[in-house]
Amino acid sequence: MKKLVLMAVAATFLLSFTAMAVMAQEKAKAEKAKTSQELKAKERGPAPVLFENDKVRVVDARTKPGERNPMQERSDRVIYHFNAGKTKVHYPDGKTEEREFKAGSVEFRKRDTTSSENIGKAENHNLVINLK
């Protein structure tokens, strides 16, 4: 009788751990889905094209604080920053890089696949000249 009670207690104990593990996995899945939905909600729409020909594509990119642009392949480009700001660049492998820029600064970025997020307190306003 003692063995039976002991086995029942042990089985209940193991079952509770299994249930907790399953619940933790479900919670993690739900968090991942929620995070994915939140990121989609914070994505900004496509930037308006100001000029395009067979050599370049010029866009007026504005990103509000907390917004990000979608992960995509981007060509070589020159970026003019109308105002100072901070961005976090996200790479497909999960790495991130924080960048800060000053108003009036210009940078050249090589072809890559990225998503950038405005982590500053003001809207980022950039003129992006994509080379074809």
Please characterize this protein's 3D structure:
The structure is a single chain. This protein is α+β, with helices and mostly antiparallel strands. The chain has two domains: 1-42; 49-131, Jelly Rolls (Sandwich), CATH 2.60.120.10. Helix content is 31%, strand content 39%. The strands form two sheets. The protein has a five-stranded antiparallel β-sheet, with no helix packed on it. It has a four-stranded antiparallel β-sheet with strand order 3-8-5-6, with no helix packed on it. The chain is elongated. The chain starts with a helix and ends with a strand. The model has no long low-confidence stretch (mean pLDDT 85).
Note the main attributes of this structure.
single chain; 132 residues; alpha+beta; Jelly Rolls; 2 domains; five-stranded antiparallel sheet; four-stranded antiparallel sheet; 31% helix; 39% strand
Largest sheet composition: 5 strands, antiparallel
Overall helicity: 25-40%
Mean pLDDT comes to 85
Inertia-based shape: elongated
Give the number of domains. 2
Number of β-strand runs: 9
CATH class of the largest domain reads: Mainly Beta
Report the C-alpha radius of gyration, rounded. Answer: 24 Å
Strand order of the largest sheet: 1-2-9-4-7
Structural class category: alpha+beta
* CATH level 3 topology of the largest domain: Jelly Rolls
